[in-house]
Protein backbone atom coordinates (compact mmCIF):
# COMPACT_ATOMS: atom_id res chain seq x y z
CA UNK A 1 0.00 0.00 0.00
CA UNK A 2 2.85 2.37 0.86
CA UNK A 3 4.44 1.69 -2.54
CA UNK A 4 1.18 2.68 -4.26
CA UNK A 5 1.06 6.01 -2.39
CA UNK A 6 4.73 6.67 -3.16
CA UNK A 7 4.16 6.18 -6.89
CA UNK A 8 1.02 8.36 -6.77
CA UNK A 9 2.98 11.14 -5.06
CA UNK A 10 5.63 11.01 -7.79
CA UNK A 11 3.06 11.21 -10.58
CA UNK A 12 1.34 14.32 -9.21
CA UNK A 13 2.10 17.41 -11.18
CA UNK A 14 3.71 20.38 -9.49
CA UNK A 15 4.19 23.93 -10.69
CA UNK A 16 7.85 24.17 -11.71
CA UNK A 17 9.25 27.69 -11.76
CA UNK A 18 12.62 29.23 -12.38
CA UNK A 19 14.67 31.87 -14.10
CA UNK A 20 16.95 31.61 -17.12
CA UNK A 21 20.12 33.68 -17.40
CA UNK A 22 23.09 34.02 -19.75
CA UNK A 23 26.38 32.60 -18.42
CA UNK A 24 28.53 35.29 -20.04
CA UNK A 25 26.91 38.43 -18.66
CA UNK A 26 24.18 37.22 -16.29
CA UNK A 27 21.38 38.81 -18.32
CA UNK A 28 17.94 37.27 -18.06
CA UNK A 29 16.88 35.59 -21.33
CA UNK A 30 13.30 36.06 -22.58
CA UNK A 31 11.79 33.74 -25.19
CA UNK A 32 13.55 30.52 -24.14
CA UNK A 33 11.54 27.43 -25.07
CA UNK A 34 10.94 25.06 -22.16
CA UNK A 35 9.37 21.65 -22.75
CA UNK A 36 8.78 18.49 -20.76
CA UNK A 37 10.82 15.82 -22.55
CA UNK A 38 8.72 13.13 -24.22
CA UNK A 39 5.50 15.17 -24.03
CA UNK A 40 3.81 18.02 -25.88
CA UNK A 41 3.85 20.24 -22.77
CA UNK A 42 5.80 23.45 -23.15
CA UNK A 43 6.09 27.12 -22.38
CA UNK A 44 8.33 30.13 -23.06
CA UNK A 45 10.23 32.35 -20.61
CA UNK A 46 8.84 35.85 -20.10
CA UNK A 47 10.61 39.22 -20.48
CA UNK A 48 12.35 38.71 -17.11
CA UNK A 49 13.61 35.24 -18.07
CA UNK A 50 11.10 33.63 -15.68
CA UNK A 51 8.96 30.62 -16.52
CA UNK A 52 6.33 28.36 -15.00
CA UNK A 53 5.29 24.90 -16.23
CA UNK A 54 3.37 21.96 -14.79
CA UNK A 55 5.49 18.78 -14.57
CA UNK A 56 6.07 15.73 -12.41
CA UNK A 57 8.98 15.38 -10.00
CA UNK A 58 11.66 13.49 -11.93
CA UNK A 59 10.52 14.72 -15.36
CA UNK A 60 13.21 16.17 -17.61
CA UNK A 61 12.83 19.77 -18.79
CA UNK A 62 14.50 20.78 -22.06
CA UNK A 63 15.61 24.41 -22.43
CA UNK A 64 16.41 25.69 -25.91
CA UNK A 65 17.01 29.08 -27.49
CA UNK A 66 18.64 30.11 -30.77
CA UNK A 67 22.32 30.85 -30.23
CA UNK A 68 22.52 28.85 -26.99
CA UNK A 69 23.29 25.24 -26.13
CA UNK A 70 20.29 23.01 -25.41
CA UNK A 71 20.18 22.12 -21.72
CA UNK A 72 18.22 19.41 -19.88
CA UNK A 73 17.38 19.43 -16.17
CA UNK A 74 15.50 16.99 -13.94
CA UNK A 75 12.58 18.43 -11.95
CA UNK A 76 13.33 18.27 -8.20
CA UNK A 77 10.66 17.93 -5.51
CA UNK A 78 11.16 21.62 -4.64
CA UNK A 79 9.79 22.58 -8.06
CA UNK A 80 12.47 25.25 -8.59
CA UNK A 81 14.84 24.98 -11.59
CA UNK A 82 17.05 27.99 -12.32
CA UNK A 83 19.04 27.65 -15.54
CA UNK A 84 22.21 29.30 -16.87
CA UNK A 85 22.56 28.92 -20.65
CA UNK A 86 25.88 28.95 -22.50
CA UNK A 87 26.09 30.89 -25.75
CA UNK A 88 27.23 28.94 -28.79
CA UNK A 89 29.60 30.64 -31.16
CA UNK A 90 30.02 29.30 -34.66
CA UNK A 91 31.75 30.39 -37.82
CA UNK A 92 29.25 32.33 -39.94
CA UNK A 93 31.26 31.51 -43.08
CA UNK A 94 30.11 27.89 -42.78
CA UNK A 95 26.38 28.59 -42.47
CA UNK A 96 24.04 29.72 -45.24
CA UNK A 97 20.80 31.44 -44.28
CA UNK A 98 17.88 30.46 -46.48
CA UNK A 99 14.26 31.58 -46.46
CA UNK A 100 13.02 28.84 -44.14
CA UNK A 101 16.07 27.53 -42.25
CA UNK A 102 19.82 27.03 -42.49
CA UNK A 103 22.14 24.50 -44.08
CA UNK A 104 25.88 23.97 -44.35
CA UNK A 105 27.56 25.72 -47.24
CA UNK A 106 29.01 22.38 -48.39
CA UNK A 107 25.48 20.91 -48.70
CA UNK A 108 24.10 23.83 -50.73
CA UNK A 109 23.42 23.61 -54.46
CA UNK A 110 22.05 26.31 -56.73
CA UNK A 111 22.62 30.03 -57.21
CA UNK A 112 24.40 31.68 -54.30
CA UNK A 113 25.44 35.25 -53.55
CA UNK A 114 27.91 36.16 -50.85
CA UNK A 115 27.46 39.13 -48.54
CA UNK A 116 30.38 40.11 -46.35
CA UNK A 117 30.03 41.57 -42.88
CA UNK A 118 31.50 44.80 -44.26
CA UNK A 119 28.64 45.03 -46.76
CA UNK A 120 26.11 44.61 -43.96
CA UNK A 121 27.70 47.12 -41.57
CA UNK A 122 28.04 49.80 -44.24
CA UNK A 123 24.35 49.62 -45.24
CA UNK A 124 22.21 52.47 -43.81
CA UNK A 125 19.65 50.23 -42.08
CA UNK A 126 18.19 49.80 -38.60
CA UNK A 127 18.06 45.98 -38.41
CA UNK A 128 19.85 42.91 -39.73
CA UNK A 129 16.71 41.82 -41.60
CA UNK A 130 16.58 45.15 -43.37
CA UNK A 131 20.27 44.83 -44.23
CA UNK A 132 19.69 41.48 -45.92
CA UNK A 133 16.79 42.91 -47.92
CA UNK A 134 18.96 45.84 -49.06
CA UNK A 135 21.84 43.53 -50.02
CA UNK A 136 19.52 41.15 -51.90
CA UNK A 137 18.21 44.06 -53.94
CA UNK A 138 21.76 45.17 -54.76
CA UNK A 139 22.79 41.69 -55.91
CA UNK A 140 19.79 41.14 -58.24
TrEMBL record:
This is TonB-dependent receptor. Keywords: Receptor. It comes from the Bacteria. Pfam families: CarbopepD_reg_2. SUPFAM superfamilies: Carboxypeptidase regulatory domain-like, Porins.
Amino acid sequence: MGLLFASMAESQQINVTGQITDRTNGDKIPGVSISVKGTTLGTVSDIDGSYSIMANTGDVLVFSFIGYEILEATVPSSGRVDIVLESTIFNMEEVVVIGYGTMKKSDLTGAVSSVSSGDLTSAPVSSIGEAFRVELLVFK
